[in-house]
Specification:
There is one protein chain. By secondary structure, this protein is of the alpha/beta class. It has a single domain, classed as HUPs (Rossmann fold). The protein is 42% helix and 18% strand. The chain has 6 helices and 5 strands, in the order E-H-E-H-E-H-E-H-E-H-H. A 5-stranded parallel beta sheet has the order 3-2-1-4-5, sandwiched between helices. The longest helix has 17 residues. The mean pLDDT is 95. The structure holds 4'-phosphopantetheine. The site of 4'-phosphopantetheine (PNS) has 10 residues, from strand 1 and helix 4.
Length: 163
Protein backbone atom coordinates (compact mmCIF):
# COMPACT_ATOMS: atom_id res chain seq x y z
CA UNK A 1 0.00 0.00 0.00
CA UNK A 2 1.27 3.45 -0.92
CA UNK A 3 1.55 5.89 1.94
CA UNK A 4 0.02 9.28 1.27
CA UNK A 5 0.62 12.22 3.60
CA UNK A 6 -0.70 15.75 3.56
CA UNK A 7 1.61 18.55 4.56
CA UNK A 8 -0.91 21.28 5.40
CA UNK A 9 -0.34 24.90 6.25
CA UNK A 10 -0.93 28.50 5.28
CA UNK A 11 2.44 28.74 3.49
CA UNK A 12 2.07 32.51 3.30
CA UNK A 13 4.75 32.24 2.04
CA UNK A 14 6.83 29.05 1.96
CA UNK A 15 10.06 29.40 3.96
CA UNK A 16 13.32 27.45 4.02
CA UNK A 17 11.98 25.74 7.16
CA UNK A 18 8.87 24.52 5.29
CA UNK A 19 11.09 23.21 2.49
CA UNK A 20 13.25 21.34 4.98
CA UNK A 21 10.19 19.63 6.52
CA UNK A 22 8.80 18.83 3.08
CA UNK A 23 12.02 17.18 1.99
CA UNK A 24 12.07 15.10 5.19
CA UNK A 25 8.45 14.05 4.60
CA UNK A 26 9.24 12.84 1.08
CA UNK A 27 11.69 10.37 2.61
CA UNK A 28 8.99 8.89 4.83
CA UNK A 29 5.97 8.74 2.51
CA UNK A 30 5.39 7.60 -1.06
CA UNK A 31 3.38 10.67 -1.92
CA UNK A 32 3.28 14.03 -0.13
CA UNK A 33 0.60 16.57 -0.91
CA UNK A 34 1.43 20.10 0.18
CA UNK A 35 -1.98 21.37 1.15
CA UNK A 36 -2.38 25.12 1.16
CA UNK A 37 -5.20 26.42 3.32
CA UNK A 38 -7.01 29.21 1.50
CA UNK A 39 -9.93 31.24 2.71
CA UNK A 40 -8.57 30.35 6.09
CA UNK A 41 -9.61 32.81 8.75
CA UNK A 42 -6.13 34.33 8.69
CA UNK A 43 -5.52 37.29 6.41
CA UNK A 44 -2.95 36.32 3.79
CA UNK A 45 -0.42 38.38 1.84
CA UNK A 46 -0.43 35.95 -1.09
CA UNK A 47 -3.51 34.47 -2.76
CA UNK A 48 -3.93 30.70 -2.85
CA UNK A 49 -2.82 30.57 -6.48
CA UNK A 50 0.23 32.74 -5.76
CA UNK A 51 1.24 30.53 -2.84
CA UNK A 52 0.89 27.39 -4.95
CA UNK A 53 2.91 28.90 -7.76
CA UNK A 54 5.67 29.91 -5.34
CA UNK A 55 5.80 26.44 -3.76
CA UNK A 56 5.96 24.83 -7.19
CA UNK A 57 8.79 27.16 -8.17
CA UNK A 58 10.68 26.41 -4.93
CA UNK A 59 10.55 22.63 -5.40
CA UNK A 60 11.05 22.56 -9.18
CA UNK A 61 14.06 20.49 -10.18
CA UNK A 62 14.69 19.09 -6.70
CA UNK A 63 15.37 15.38 -6.84
CA UNK A 64 13.14 14.66 -3.84
CA UNK A 65 10.16 16.55 -5.26
CA UNK A 66 9.10 13.85 -7.74
CA UNK A 67 6.35 12.57 -5.45
CA UNK A 68 5.18 15.96 -4.26
CA UNK A 69 1.95 17.61 -5.36
CA UNK A 70 0.67 21.01 -4.35
CA UNK A 71 -3.05 21.59 -3.82
CA UNK A 72 -5.24 24.11 -2.10
CA UNK A 73 -8.22 23.50 0.12
CA UNK A 74 -10.93 25.26 2.04
CA UNK A 75 -12.92 23.78 4.90
CA UNK A 76 -11.84 21.11 7.32
CA UNK A 77 -8.43 19.59 6.80
CA UNK A 78 -9.55 16.07 7.69
CA UNK A 79 -12.29 16.21 5.04
CA UNK A 80 -9.68 17.12 2.47
CA UNK A 81 -7.38 14.34 3.74
CA UNK A 82 -10.16 11.78 3.26
CA UNK A 83 -10.81 13.07 -0.25
CA UNK A 84 -7.12 12.60 -1.07
CA UNK A 85 -6.98 9.13 0.61
CA UNK A 86 -4.32 10.42 2.99
CA UNK A 87 -4.18 9.00 6.49
CA UNK A 88 -1.27 11.07 7.79
CA UNK A 89 -0.86 14.78 8.39
CA UNK A 90 2.66 16.15 8.63
CA UNK A 91 3.39 19.19 10.75
CA UNK A 92 6.69 20.82 11.54
CA UNK A 93 7.49 21.59 15.16
CA UNK A 94 10.31 24.07 15.64
CA UNK A 95 10.25 24.69 19.36
CA UNK A 96 8.41 23.62 22.49
CA UNK A 97 6.27 26.78 22.16
CA UNK A 98 4.81 25.41 18.90
CA UNK A 99 3.78 22.22 20.57
CA UNK A 100 0.75 23.37 22.55
CA UNK A 101 -1.03 24.68 19.45
CA UNK A 102 0.05 21.68 17.40
CA UNK A 103 -1.07 19.24 20.07
CA UNK A 104 -4.52 20.86 20.28
CA UNK A 105 -4.85 20.82 16.51
CA UNK A 106 -3.75 17.17 16.28
CA UNK A 107 -6.20 16.12 19.00
CA UNK A 108 -9.03 18.01 17.30
CA UNK A 109 -8.26 16.36 13.99
CA UNK A 110 -8.07 12.98 15.70
CA UNK A 111 -11.47 13.50 17.32
CA UNK A 112 -12.93 14.46 13.94
CA UNK A 113 -11.20 11.63 12.06
CA UNK A 114 -9.79 8.89 14.34
CA UNK A 115 -8.06 7.07 11.49
CA UNK A 116 -5.96 10.05 10.47
CA UNK A 117 -2.71 10.50 12.40
CA UNK A 118 -0.53 13.57 12.79
CA UNK A 119 3.21 13.12 12.53
CA UNK A 120 5.50 15.87 13.82
CA UNK A 121 8.84 16.49 12.17
CA UNK A 122 11.66 18.71 13.38
CA UNK A 123 13.46 20.92 10.90
CA UNK A 124 17.21 21.33 10.90
CA UNK A 125 18.34 23.46 13.83
CA UNK A 126 19.23 26.40 11.56
CA UNK A 127 15.52 26.82 10.66
CA UNK A 128 14.02 26.58 14.13
CA UNK A 129 13.38 30.31 14.49
CA UNK A 130 12.06 30.97 10.98
CA UNK A 131 8.35 31.59 10.55
CA UNK A 132 6.30 33.06 7.72
CA UNK A 133 5.29 35.97 9.95
CA UNK A 134 8.88 36.84 10.87
CA UNK A 135 9.83 36.63 7.19
CA UNK A 136 7.01 39.05 6.28
CA UNK A 137 8.14 41.46 8.99
CA UNK A 138 11.72 41.45 7.61
CA UNK A 139 10.38 41.85 4.05
CA UNK A 140 8.15 44.75 5.07
CA UNK A 141 11.19 46.64 6.35
CA UNK A 142 13.21 45.65 3.28
CA UNK A 143 15.65 43.40 5.15
CA UNK A 144 17.87 40.69 3.70
CA UNK A 145 15.71 37.59 3.18
CA UNK A 146 18.35 35.38 1.60
CA UNK A 147 18.76 32.99 4.53
CA UNK A 148 15.05 32.75 5.34
CA UNK A 149 13.31 31.93 2.06
CA UNK A 150 14.14 30.71 -1.45
CA UNK A 151 15.03 33.41 -3.98
CA UNK A 152 11.66 33.31 -5.78
CA UNK A 153 9.84 33.92 -2.50
CA UNK A 154 12.18 36.78 -1.56
CA UNK A 155 11.50 38.44 -4.92
CA UNK A 156 7.73 37.95 -4.61
CA UNK A 157 7.78 39.43 -1.09
CA UNK A 158 9.80 42.43 -2.22
CA UNK A 159 7.26 43.04 -4.98
CA UNK A 160 4.34 42.82 -2.53
CA UNK A 161 5.89 45.21 -0.06
CA UNK A 162 7.44 47.64 -2.53
CA UNK A 163 6.30 51.06 -1.43
O1 LIG B 1 0.53 27.17 8.74
P1 LIG B 1 -0.59 27.23 9.73
O2 LIG B 1 -1.35 28.53 9.59
O3 LIG B 1 -0.15 26.97 11.13
O4 LIG B 1 -1.60 26.05 9.31
C1 LIG B 1 -2.77 25.82 10.06
C2 LIG B 1 -3.77 24.95 9.26
C3 LIG B 1 -4.11 25.60 7.93
C4 LIG B 1 -3.15 23.59 9.01
C5 LIG B 1 -5.04 24.78 10.15
O5 LIG B 1 -5.50 26.04 10.53
C6 LIG B 1 -6.16 24.02 9.44
O6 LIG B 1 -6.07 22.83 9.29
N1 LIG B 1 -7.20 24.76 9.00
C7 LIG B 1 -8.32 24.18 8.32
C8 LIG B 1 -9.54 24.11 9.23
C9 LIG B 1 -9.49 22.90 10.13
O7 LIG B 1 -9.49 21.77 9.69
N2 LIG B 1 -9.47 23.13 11.47
C10 LIG B 1 -9.48 22.03 12.44
C11 LIG B 1 -8.12 21.77 13.03
S1 LIG B 1 -7.84 22.90 14.35
Amino acid sequence: MKTIALYPGSFDPMTNGHLDILERATKLFDRVIVTVAVNNRKEAVFSGDERIELIETCIAGKEWSKNVEVKQFTGLLVDHAKKMNANTLVRGVRQISDFEYEFRMALTNKRLAPNIDTVFLMPDEEFTFISASIVKEVAYWDGDLSSFVPKAVAEALKKKFRK
